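Lab notes, practical 5.
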Amino acid sequence: MLWSIWLGANICVWMTEVAAAWLMTSLTSSALMVSLVQTAVTLPVFLLALPGGALADVINRRLGLVLSQAWLAVVAGLVTAQMMTGSLTPWSLLALMFASGMATALRWPVFNAIVPEIVVREQLASALTLHAMAMNGARVFGPMFAGFVVAAWGTTWVFAIVCVLSLGAVLVLMRWPYRAGPAPEHKRHLLPAIKDGLHYILRHPDRRAVILQCGLVYMAVTSLLALLPLVANSLRPGDAGLYASLAASGAVGAICVGPLLHRARQRYSSQTLVTCGALVMAAGVLGVSAVDHVGATVVLLFISGAGWLSAGNTLSVTLQSRLSDTFRARGMSVFLMSMMVGGALGSASFGALADLIGPRGSLASMAGVLACLAILMRLFASVDPKAD
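Output from the prediction step:
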C-alpha cells in the first residue's frame, strides 16, 4: 500500500511539473518564466528538506504523509480552480509550484523514515530498491500520462487528476492502522531537533562519506539530464519526442538493474557497488559524448541509468542501515539536501562549460571528473566502516 502511494505521488509530481511547464508557455512568451517553473519546484526541496526531516521525527509519521498528500491536493485544486475561472497568472503559477515543492520536501524524508518501521532489517535493502525503482518508473510514466491527458482533454485535467489521486492517497493512509511509538520530550522542539540531527549525521566519518558521495553521484545525474535536451537536438530528428525517449531510456536502465542489486549486495561491499556504479555511469556518459547515432545513444543512456541507480540506491541503503529510528528522517533529509546541492552545482558548472566547449565536450569532461572522484572517494572516503 505504501509503495503504491509512493509511486502515485511521484507520478503526480512529474505530471505536475510537465503540465506546469507546458501551461507557462501559454501564459507568457518569456523563456525565463518557463525555466523558473523547475526552479520553483526544486527550491523548496532544498530549503525545507532538513526542517521537513526534523518535523518528521517530531510528529506522527503517518500524519506527515497525510499532510503532504493533502497539501498537494490543495495546490492542484487551486491551480484547477484558477484555470477554470481564467484567473491564473504566470506569477501565481510559480507560487503554486513552489507550494507543490513544499509537499515533496516533507513527503521524501517521512517516507524514507517510515519504511524501516514496517520492513524487517533483512528486507530493508530490497524495499529501498523498490522505492528507487518507483521513482525512476514515475520519471517515465508521469510525463507520458501528462502528455496524453493534455492532448486528449487539456492541461486543466492534469491538475484535476493529481488532486483526485492525492485525495485518494489521503483516504487510504487514514485507514492504515499505523502505530507510532511515543515521541521523547526532547524531540518536540523543531530547532533543537534540527541541530541535534545535523550533529548526529555529520559526526561519524562513514556517514559523512555517504553524504559526500551522494552529492557526487547526483552532480553527474543532474548534469546529464540538464544537457540531454542539447544532445537530443544534435541528433535526428531532434524533436521533443526524441528527447523524451532519451530521458526514458536512462530511467528504464535504472528500473531494470534494480532486481539485480539484492544478489550483488550479498557478494560485494557497499563501496565497491558505489564505485562500480559511478564508473559504469561515467563510461556510459563518455560514450554518449562520443557517438552520433540515436540507437547507440539510447543504449548508452540505459547503461548510465543502471550505473546511477546502483550507486545512488546503495548509498541510500547504506545510510539507512546506520541511522537510528530517532534520527532517521533527519538523516535522510540531509541525504536529500546533498542530492540537491550536488545537482545544482553540477548542472550549473557543466552547463556553463557547455557554452565554452559544447555539450558533448562538457559531458566528456563530466565523465572524467566523475570517474576520478569515484576512485578518490574509494581510496580516501569509503562508506564502509574501517572494521569491514
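Observations recorded by the TA: The chain has a mean pLDDT of 82. DSSP finds 14 helices and no strands in the chain.
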